[in-house]
Amino acid sequence: MATPPRRPTNPFAAAEAAFKPVKKPAAALIREPSTAPNVRELVSIRIDRAVLDHFQEDGPGWQDRINDALRQWVAAKR
C-alpha cells in the first residue's frame, strides 16, 4: 500500500484552511442588578494594607464592618 503524500493534494484548499477568518468574540454579557433587596455580591477590590489592618484588628466580621462603613458613606452622600 502506498503512503499518502506529505503535501496536501490541493495547496489552495490547505492555504484557505490555514487562514480562515477569525470569528468575532461574543459580546460581553451585561449584568443586570439583582431584584432581591440587600443581596450581597462577591467582588474583589484592592485595599491599602493599613485600611485592611484597621478593619481586621477587631477579629471576624471585618468584611461586614467595611460594608457598614461604605453604606454610611453612601448614605451621607445622598
- CA-atom Rg in angstroms: 29 Å
Instruction: Give the strand tally.
Output: 0
Question: β content, as a range?
Answer: under 5%
Helix content: 40-55%
Give me the number of helical elements.
3
Largest sheet: none
Helix/strand order, N-terminal first: HHH
What global shape is seen?
A: elongated
Mean pLDDT: 83
How far apart are the first and last residues' alpha carbons, in Å?
Answer: 83 Å
Q: Which spans of ≥5 residues are poorly predicted at pLDDT below 50?
A: none
What class do helices, strands and sheet pairing give?
A: mainly alpha
Helices and strands in order:
Elements: H1 11-18, H2 49-56, H3 62-77
Question: What would a concise description of this structure say?
Answer:
The protein has three helices and no strands. The protein is mainly α and 78 residues long.
What do you see in this structure?
Helices cover 41% and strands 0% of the residues. With 78 residues, it is mostly helical. The termini are far apart.
Provide the descriptors you would attach to this structure in a database record.
mainly alpha; 3 helices; 78 residues
